[in-house]
Every structure is written in C-alpha cells, then in structure tokens.
Amino acid sequence: MVDSRATGIRPITALFLLTVLICVMLVTPAAAEAPPDRISVNTSYNEDTPDYGVLNFSSVQEAVNRVAEGGEVWVYNGTYNESVVIDRSMTVMTVSEPSCPGPGGVTLNAQGGAVGVEITASGVSFSGFEVVNASEVGVYVHGAGAVDILHNRITVSNDACALTCGILVEDGTDVCIEGNEVRAIGSSTQAGITVDEVTDACIHDN
User: Fold this and answer.
1) Which of 45, 97, 150, 196 could join 127 via S-S bond, C-beta 3.0 to 4.6 A?
2) DSSP summary character for residue 126
3) Nearest to residue 94, comparing CAs of 54, 152, 133, 18?
C-alpha cells in the first residue's frame, strides 16, 4: 500500500528549494567586476568608442580612478585640461616617447590650479608628461614611498605666490626624480626641485 503523504513530500520539497534559490538570487547583488589592469586615455575617445568608461577614457583622472591597484594608465598624445590626483599604486605613463615630453606629446594643463599632479600613494610611477599652468606646484608628492618621477617637462608660473616649485616631495622614502626639465617662473621665490624629510632620494639628470 502506497502512502499518499510520502509521495507528496518530494514535489513539495523540490518546490520549496526552488523558491529559496530564486529568493537568494534576487536579494544577492551581482559580484562587482574586477577593475582593469590597463586603461587607455585619448582626447578623441567618446561615448561611441568601444569600452568607453571601462577600458578607454578621455580623462586622465577618470582613468586613474578606475584602474586596478598596481595597474597602468596609458595616455595618448593630446592636451588634457585637468589636474590629477594619484592616490593608489599605479603607473601613469605617456604612449609617446617618454624622454621627449612637450609639444606634440601629452600635456596636462592644470588651468591655474594650485597643483598640477598630486601623488599621495606609494608605488607610483609618473612619466613622459608636460605639466603646465599650475600656480604653485607642478608635481607634489607627500607621505609616499617608492615613487618615480621620470622624463617630464614641468612649468610653474605665478607672480602672486610666495613660493613656486616645479617638483616638491615631502615626508617620504625611496623617491627617484630623473630626467625632468623643470621651470619655475615668477617674481617670488622659485624652486625647481625641493625634497624635504625624504630618505633614500635619487635625484639626477634633471
């Protein structure tokens, strides 16, 4: 004799498990995609560019914000009207010849902002850029270690500030400043490269 109560258990159990599974899928957020290890930046990129906003950007800062920790931001020739803050480990480099920044290459125009490029993280390499129109400091590194500033052309011009500085590094360690061309222009006190409270600094061929 077949127990009708037993035959009904399996369908009910299966339906219950299916319902629970659907509920879990609905309430569990989808896992976030890992940020890319390499991002490209070009002034010509726009919403019609494949992978725009993911792998391709028209803003250096947006690319810096989206790349993975320890990743690379490759910047193509053009003028980018923005200041940049680098607050995680990464390499930010130009795709043009890194030892010859300037006209025809990659220009970061700070548009009168106090600082052109600010680096607050360790493990950063910044190379191949022309940085212009910062009012106080072209490249400012503070509280960071293992930072390379390589083959950049930096111009700071201001008659109003008491001090203008092309490259300023404060409170850090293991900093390499190599192959940069630095100009600080104004009627106030100018300093090309200033390093303060930094250990293991390597400064040459600037």
Assistant:
1) 150
2) E
3) 152
Instruction: Encode pLDDT of 72-86 as tens digits.
Output: 999 999 999 999 999
Q: How many CB atoms lie within 10 A of CB 187?
A: 9
Question: Each residue of 162-202: pLDDT tens digit?
Answer: 788 999 999 999 999 999 999 988 767 888 999 999 999 99
Residue 57 near residue 40 (C-beta atoms within 8 A) = yes
CA-to-CA separations, 111 to 58, 87, 122, 153, 156, in angstroms, rounded: 17, 21, 26, 16, 11
The whole-angstrom separation of Cα 78 and Cα 54 is 20
Q: Which of 151, 101, 165, 93 is nearest to 130 (CA)?
A: 101
Q: State the pTM of this model.
A: 0.82
The whole-angstrom distance between residue 167's C-alpha and the CA centroid of its chain comes to: 18
